[in-house]
Design goal:
eight-stranded parallel β-barrel; binds 6-O-phosphono-beta-D-glucopyranose; three-stranded mixed sheet; 461 residues; 17 strands
Length: 461
Amino acid sequence: MQYRFPEQFWWGSASSAAQAEGASLQGGKAPTIWDHWFEQSPNRFHQQIGPAQTSGFYEHFRDDIRLLKQLGHNSFRTSIAWSRLIPAGRGEPNPQAVAFYDAMLDELKAEGIEPFICLFHFDMPMSMQALGGWESREVIEAYAEFAETSFRLFGGKVKHWFTFNEPIVPVEGGYLYDFHYPNVVDFRRAATVAYHTMLAHAMAVQRYRELGQDGQIGIILNLTPSYPRSQHPADLKAAKIADLMFNRSFLDPAVKGEYPAELVELLREYDQLPACEPGDAALLAAGKIDLLGVNYYQPRRVKARSHAVNPASPFMPEWFFDYYEMPGRKMNPHRGWEIYEQGIYDILINLRDHYGNIPSYISENGMGVEGEARFKGEDGQIQDDYRIGFIRDHLIWLHKGLSEGCQCRGYHLWTFIDNWSWSNAYKNRYGFIELELESQTRRIKKSGQWFATAARENGFD
Ligand code: BG6
């Protein structure tokens, strides 16, 4: 076999509570910012489809876990919904939620699938947002309590925990670029949200360590390597600042327990530093992780700005760079994102060389396709050879990283079944399994069969 992976390599896929469970206001669950935003502005959501219309994992989880088995999975990531487990945000857990997550974890165990559990995947409870969301220190405390409750309830069954999924996304979406609630545009507030998220992360890690449970804790970051247009110093500087703002602002505190000095200096120079309190630095230092989840979709290509910044304009990351469309870059024709497989290797080499070769795994990678039903074959199965090629090519670069000493322990596709997504709803289909939304029927795509074989054989030719 040409590409053989290490024993115990994690083959699987990822999902999240809000995107798959459905039952968004049932079983005692309280609303999240998404339920609220959908009610307020349904037109922001593709075809006005909101978070209640999913593949119904809350109801169908047993059948879905059987499908995961058919997909050859030995591991699977999903999240616990804070607003389901603790509907008031703080206080007693909801017994229906405890029963649901217990049953789901038992079912995974029965099928021999290792659960990877994330504690926050963009789904801020509305009750917590009303307190200020991540701008509020009270919410940090509340989140740490929720994390501790989850560890105590499920720590016997879960050995891989993640505090956050892509914490930069609520910062960008909610406070910089207007695609998540509370849809404001304000860099200083964005910086506070980013900073408080990492304090919350560190507090959860600290609670986990205090409990002394047998397992690992980490965070999932969407690392987007920043490539400069040229080796000209101005382009190199632009790429460096983009890297500091979008990657190292989370990667350094998570792995090294502190922020990069250059980032702190930059924000200080522009008077954008969030307020710190005594004890913050020690808390951050206690938040170092055991395992890093890496979500990788596409790189960031940047160049020096071609026009001077208007100093009267609101401070934004783009004060320091412009985006650059590299001629000849390979695009996903079905979703408009660049495909650059080598990015996965570059990330792993960076972790090896600059982050102590921290154990990692690819926690998301995937190909969104609009209008995927047009690729159905005569028998009705989606013939997604493009996705097979995409996964295979990324795995080949991952494999090269392994052969050069990187500690990457697995690969999870986004996602196992076509799912609801933040305002895009069902526009971009990513799953190994096709979901027919109205009838709720499921059908494994060709890529799912390919992956099952690769997983069972632990490699491919
Ligand atoms: C990832 C998120 O960044 O991208 C997922 O973790 C999300 O939650 C995925 O669904 C794809 O995004 P979209 O908008 O194309 O569905």
